[in-house]
Amino acid sequence: MKYRKLGASDLMVSEISLGSWLTYGVGVERDNAIACVNRAFDLGITFIDTANVYGRGAAEEVLGEALAGRPRDSYILATKLMGPMSDTDKGLSRAQVFKQIDASLARLRTDYVDLYQCHRYDPDTPLEETMQALTEIVQAGKVRYIGFSEWSPDQIEAAFAIPGVERFVSSQPQYSLLWRRPEAKVIPVCKAHDVSQIVWSPLAQGVLTGKYLPGQPLPDDSRAASDSMSSAIQRWMEPGTLERVQKLKPIVAEAGCSMAQFALAWVLREPNVASAIVGASRPGQLDDNAAAVDLTIDPALFARAEAVLAG
To answer: Is residue 45 part of a domain?
Structure first.
């Protein structure tokens, strides 16, 4: 495994990180989830990302159990707040920041998280209130660094314009060969403020692995076939998209790697990306994903792949 510095922090994060959205505590049973975490460590994947809203605390609870007993300085742990934890508990108000960090720490069985992220922007809470509250939980030792996910360039700039508060070190956008929107504005703004990207869905929910064939039945063990995990993948299951992904196979064959490795290596070619988050429902998937960090792929092959997917 290889590691990159996360923005202006002193955190060194593994280039492949293990995520838990739609999986642990939700679509993947406990023993298999813990086996995936253990395999991640075997491979040098020491950056773990979750959120309070994943399974309404269930993912954090599974990770708390899986990480129990491991030296706390042997991994980097990130979680998030913003989404609804009840009918009344949601958002980025001062009260919620204090309430949700304590609840997350209890589920995760730890005294602090290395990275605490605003899962989305909260238009109903003054940004100054959120930033001050985040600053206070950093000062209290409950959080080492802060980040955000899916904020607009203007929202990012507004946070950095507030004096006397903790600075963001990370951005968590969706980014993949099929979703390149962050390149236009978010990545340039983040570079200017020494903020790194932690990318979610770098495999477009598994579509970029090439396992979904146009007009063919879904693989039984796939995310798209799962009642609990299939909702987010539907945007990529349009036949035209699946057909273009299949056209990548000859290009990837020239690169001499798997489809997943090619897609992850493409994301990691961007210097502002610190880590690509992968989800795993079985340990063996992580072996294939982790190998992407050792690839050296001709940029011309990446350019051809981009052209194919652009249609």
So the answer is: yes
* pLDDT tier, 280 (very low <50, low <70, confident <90, very high otherwise): confident
- Are 274 and 5 in contact by the 8 Å Cβ rule? The answer is yes
In the predicted model, is pLDDT for residue 222 greater than 70?
Answer: no
The beta-carbon contacts of 301-304 under 8 Å, at least 24 apart in sequence, are: 301/251, 301/254, 301/255, 301/262, 302/266, 302/269, 304/251
pTM for this entry? 0.92
Q: Is the pLDDT of residue 93 over 50?
A: yes
Task: Give the per-residue pLDDT at 231.
Answer: 58
HSE-CB at 241 with a 13 A cutoff on CA atoms is 17
78-90 b/e with 16+ CB inside 10 Å = b?
bbbbbbebeeebb
- Contact between 199 and 277 (Cβ < 8 Å): yes
Residues ≥6 apart with Cβ < 8 Å to 1: 14, 15, 16, 43, 44, 45, 46, 290, 293
List Cβ neighbours of 257 (8 Å cut-off, separation of 6 or more).
Answer: 265, 291, 292, 295, 297
Q: Would residue 303 count as lying in a domain? A: no
Active site residues: 54
What CATH code is carried by the domain that includes residue 108?
A: 3.20.20.100
Domain-embedded: residue 28: yes
Sign of CA dihedral 252, 257, 261, 267: negative
- CA 14 to centroid of chain Cα atoms: 12
